[in-house]
């Protein structure tokens, strides 16, 4: 993986699995423990932005050390999320694509463009979002409907 320009969720999943196995940490990686660790990391990520007010895209006023620290905390969040999804048996890539499809149905661009209102504001959109998708569920299972 070193030197490659593209890293997949499966690459990260395998790396995390190997990392935990080498340290005999699987015994500690219950869904609950991983979730609590994830929440802790989100808290650390939040601390970076606390008291900064609105921060412009690209973080032009941040120095390299601040950006590196941000990257480390973002990485911690991602790694715990990937590990949690693996331990729970959720194909995160498929689940994300399904969720994006659901969000596209809840928030059709032609009706929601430039609006920050929740999908429940648009009654027809809300009803459409309740219709089952043609394939897959939140676990990425192609054979079951959610």
UniProtKB/TrEMBL annotation:
Region (Disordered): 126-146
Any one biological process term the GO annotation gives: DNA protection
Known EC number: 3.6.1.12
Keywords per UniProt: Cytoplasm, Hydrolase, Magnesium, Metal-binding
SUPFAM superfamilies per UniProt: all-alpha NTP pyrophosphatases
Single GO cellular component term: cytosol
Cellular localization per UniProt: Cytoplasm, Cytosol
Catalytic reactions of this protein: dCTP + H2O = dCMP + diphosphate + H(+)
Subcellular location, principal: cytoplasm
CDD domains per UniProt: NTP-PPase_RS21-C6_like
Source organism, top-level taxon: Eukaryota
Cofactors named for this entry: Mg(2+)
Gene Ontology molecular function, alphabetical: dCTP diphosphatase activity; magnesium ion binding
Subunit structure: Homotetramer.
PANTHER family: DCTP PYROPHOSPHATASE 1, PTHR14552
Function: Hydrolyzes deoxynucleoside triphosphates (dNTPs) to the corresponding nucleoside monophosphates. Has a strong preference for dCTP and its analogs including 5-iodo-dCTP and 5-methyl-dCTP for which it may even have a higher efficiency. May protect DNA or RNA against the incorporation of these genotoxic nucleotide analogs through their catabolism.
Name the UniProt record assigns to this protein: dCTP pyrophosphatase 1
Organism in which the protein naturally occurs: Platanthera zijinensis
